[in-house]
Structures are given as C-alpha cells and as structure tokens.
C-alpha cells in the first residue's frame, strides 16, 4: 500500500456557527491532493487543525508519521511548508529579505540558492517592504518562502489568490518541479478549477464541513459524464433512473434525455443492453461534479 | 520535450489507454528512436494535464510490452522495437482514429451506407492528390 503523508480519523471541531467533520481522510505521500469546495466549507479550518493551530473536539490526526498535538513538534514542522490564505499584516513594515532572514533561522534545510532562484523565476524583489508589494508579488514571495527549505510536505491554502495569469503559470511550473523528486507531497485548497486540473493527482470534494468524496483525478473525469440519449416516451425515464451510475435524468429537448452518470462505462453498458442508443457524451467539469455532489449531500 | 499526444476527454476510452495507444504509435513508427529519454512521470503528467498515476501506469504497461525500459535514477528510455511488432502496432492508432470517426457519424445518426460513402470519398480524394 502507498505511504500516507497525512491522516485524519474522526476529526471534529464544533464552533458556534460552524461544525466541521467528522472527517476521515488519508492523503497519500508522493502526490498532489487538491481539496475543492465553496468558501466556508472548512478547508482552512482543516489546515489549521493539522498544524495544531487550533484544537479538535474529537478525533486523531497524524502528519508524516507524527501524531498532531502531542510532544515536541519542532522536528516534523521543519519538514512542512505552510502557505496560509491571508498574508500576515503584522509583517507589513519589514522588507522581504528581513522576513527571509528571520524564517531561515528556524530551518536547517534552508537553501539560499533555491530561494534566490525562486525569487528570480517569480520576478520578485525582496528588498521591497512587504506592505508595499502588490498582492501578486507578495503571494509569490510567500510561496518562495515556504518552498526554500525543501519541505517534504507543502500545505497550500488558495495558493494562487492574487496572482496574474503569467505568475499563475510560473507557480504551476514551480510546484511541478517541487514534486519531481517523487517522495514529496502537496495538499492544497483551491477553488480554481483549472489549477486543480493541472496540478492534482487526487481530488477531495468538501462542503459544509464534510468530505463529499475523494477521487483519483483521471478516473473522476473518465467516470463522470453527461450522456444524451434519444428516448421514445416518458416511461423510459424510470428505466433510465435505475441504471448503474445514473444520478440524474432530465428531458433535454424533444425526445432527448440528459443523463448524469458517476460511472459512465457501466451506464453505457446498461444502456446498450437495453437497446438505447447514445447520442453523445461529454466529460463533466469539476464545478459541475461538485454541484451534483452537494445536491446529493442535501438529500442523503 | 514535446510529444504529439492529444487527449479527448469526452471519449469513452480511458485516459491511460489513449496515451498508451499514441505513445506506442510514436515508438513503433520510429518517431521516437531507441534510446530516447522520455519526460519524467511528473513532467509527462504536467504536459498532458493528467495525474502521475495514469502516466505511471502507461510507462509500466509499455515496459511490460518491451517498448520502454527504466533505469533506476536516470529515467525511462525507448527500447528497441522488434520488426514483427512494427506492422501490427502501426495500425493500432489508425484503428483508434477510425473508431472515433465512426462514433462522430453515429452521433448525427448516419447510416452504415452513408459512412462507407464518406470514407470512400475521403480515401479517393487523398489518393488522387498523392497520385
């Protein structure tokens, strides 16, 4: 079996206006896992719990084999790079280089050449005060800062927020290069569909504090399809609904049914066995899949 | 390194299969010669926007077929292709493309006869050009 970089078991957190969990989730080592979900679904809260920045009300977590919330955490936290969602405004008055000097003290593995290289590739000038940097430049600077100590695990909370398209592309490239050694892991939260498409190996859907599912990316796109099926009469709808994988059936124009399937190969087989022809098929996009999963969550 | 591999996400064929067919065709057609170093698994995944899980599967399958070999620490290379494999595998990607064309025809509900007619016409045109 594959090694697990992060594991959450029965993790819950109760707040006056938000309830997270119970969350059971394993993040495999050596892969990019992206959590996607609407704002307020609990992505950032999960990151904070993993880093012991807030405490769960129930459950166990481990990171890189170490239990979270017990004993001296300095040794394993040195192997993590965490990019938080919002920049820390307390840093506004210091220069980038000053922040870097402070950060590198805590990381024995800090690689000054890599840091300089990242700044160059991102076109960031670290002599500028952090508060004076543009939103995009500051984000790029912070990203360089969390990668420069070559962590085994990167936790990225909405990494691309504020990045222009050019900077976004270099971020994607830098993260791919980061993963090249093969034993590194990224867990990222994102609601940028294209970012997830380009980076992720696994996709976790999250909404309202719950995990809706974890999928291998390519398998997800292979299985979740919309099929258009010409059908003669209304009684066919019931027949279609009972087929394996079928989630939704609706009339799309005259005599044409639109079928949402979470297991297209099986659905197609059943359709063919029942003498239906398949008019066309279309892979679903992540946002459409998320929407279907969320609707199902409501009625489940 | 850029490779002419194109994925159709709306196809019923799984992604690993699409990549496998096209990569195999590149090797057996001689476009990728023996000893060529292929992109790393992560680079290939980035290029094709698919997961490393899929690319690893493709590399493993083609290695089992003897078309690729992996050297620990250096990467994945194109192996030598046996003559008898060439003919058989050359046609595999063509069959795939024709199947996609037939599927396009079925979507607009062409009859078998109409499709045969189109196929003949395209072939005739092409051979006239070249002839």
UniProtKB/TrEMBL annotation, chain A:
Pfam families: ABC_tran (PF00005). Transmembrane segments: none annotated. This is ABC transporter ATP-binding protein. GO terms for molecular function: ATP binding. Residues 1-233 form the ABC transporter domain. InterPro entries: AAA+_ATPase, ABC_transporter-like_ATP-bd, ABC_transporter-like_CS, ABC_Transporter_VariousFunc, P-loop_NTPase. PROSITE patterns: ABC_TRANSPORTER_1 (PS00211), ABC_TRANSPORTER_2 (PS50893). Keywords: ATP-binding, Nucleotide-binding, Transport. CDD domains: ABC_DR_subfamily_A.
TrEMBL record, chain B:
Residues 13-81 form the HTH gntR-type domain. InterPro entries: Tscrpt_reg_HTH_GntR, WH-like_DNA-bd_sf, WH_DNA-bd_sf. Pfam families: GntR (PF00392). Keywords: DNA-binding, Transcription, Transcription regulation. This is GntR family transcriptional regulator. It comes from the Bacteria. CDD domains: WHTH_GntR.
